[in-house]
């Protein structure tokens, strides 16, 4: 086993590892000294991943712990901005679940599989969606299925539709609020990573500024707005008590993905496309653009007639 630096234009077929970081992970600096690396707990994970790839006829595997030189801010920024693309181009992604045993019934909705810590981490969201093929492996490195064969259980625990999980539905067809809601109950070690881990899901890039805290999530939303007219980015809710404790209202943009909790069922409203032949329907967002200026939000929204209980009706923006 050795690290290999490969030319960008001739990237061979490779596997990629998805996992939850634990104590004594082997870093880029550690792997240079194998005698030291072998004494670390994380070394067994690297060996397990390499052996799995080799068993499947794949000569290369990318592992984030030891394949990114985090001492180089340039390399770290490039890696995080490219992560979604790298996972998407992998021949297979091995999702290693260190808290799941091969002895469990993984089809059971209450199994250790659906309760795995892997489903609660921010970075593993894109690592589930981006790859064409994800194979789930237990702590014993036993294959328990793919994201296709386990799609019902995965959908249940993540709130992501099976169509998205297996790639039958493009992320472009999923409202922004829905994509944000997938991350509402996930956590990251660094506060900024709550935003950085979502860049790939919205196909945006931005520089990393560790230390900016929750401002990173505001920047993410501003980058999304630059390329999208989807109004659902404003479909979030502020907890009343946290608003009072924090000193009042918070503005147009959410402070974290958690504010989108409960908005996983947002749908696009289709209206007749103007001047279209043959007739077609498009999302309201596509016909009514908006912009954020130094004076605030400039937007036009339709008023839609809605019906509640018999005999009662109203209007909704």
Automatic annotation (TrEMBL):
Pfam families: DUF8212, HET. Coiled coil: none annotated. InterPro entries: DUF8212 (IPR058525), HET (IPR010730). Residues 215-239 form the DUF8212 domain. Residues 14-104 form the Heterokaryon incompatibility domain. Signal peptide: none annotated. This is Heterokaryon incompatibility protein-domain-containing protein. It comes from Collybia nuda.
């Amino acid at each position: 086993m050795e690290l290999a630096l490969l030319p960008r234009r001739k990237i061979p077929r490779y596997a990629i590892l998805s996992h939850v970081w634990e104590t004594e992970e082997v870093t880029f600096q550690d792997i240079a000294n194998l005698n030291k690396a072998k004494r670390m707990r994380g070394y067994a994970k690297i060996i397990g991943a390499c052996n799995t790839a080799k068993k499947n006829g794949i000569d290369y595997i990318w592992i984030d712990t030891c394949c990114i030189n985090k001492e180089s801010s340039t390399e770290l920024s490039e890696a995080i901005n490219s992560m979604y693309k790298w996972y998407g181009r992998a021949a297979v992604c091995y999702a290693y679940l260190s808290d799941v045993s091969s002895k469990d019934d993984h089809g059971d909705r209450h199994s250790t599989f659906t309760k795995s810590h892997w489903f609660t981490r921010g970075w593993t969201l894109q690592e589930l969606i981006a790859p064409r093929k994800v194979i789930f492996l237990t702590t014993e490195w036993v294959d328990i299925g793919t994201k296709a064969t386990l799609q019902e259980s995965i959908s249940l625990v993540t709130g992501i539709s099976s169509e998205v999980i297996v790639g039958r539905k493009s992320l472009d067809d999923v409202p922004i609020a829905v994509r944000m809601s997938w991350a509402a109950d996930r956590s990251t070690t660094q506060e900024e990573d709550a935003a950085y881990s979502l860049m790939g899901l919205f196909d945006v890039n931005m520089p990393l500024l560790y230390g900016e805290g929750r401002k990173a999530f505001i920047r993410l939303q501003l980058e999304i707005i630059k390329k999208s007219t989807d109004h659902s980015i404003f479909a979030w809710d502020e907890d009343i008590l946290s608003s009072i404790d924090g000193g009042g209202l918070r503005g147009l943009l959410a402070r974290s993905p958690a504010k989108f909790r409960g908005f996983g069922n947002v749908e696009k409203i289709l209206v007749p496309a103007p001047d279209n032949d043959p007739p077609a329907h498009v999302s309201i967002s596509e016909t009514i653009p908006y912009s954020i200026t130094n004076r605030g939000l400039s937007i036009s929204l339709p008023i839609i007639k809605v019906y509640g209980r018999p005999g009662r009706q109203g209007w909704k923006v």
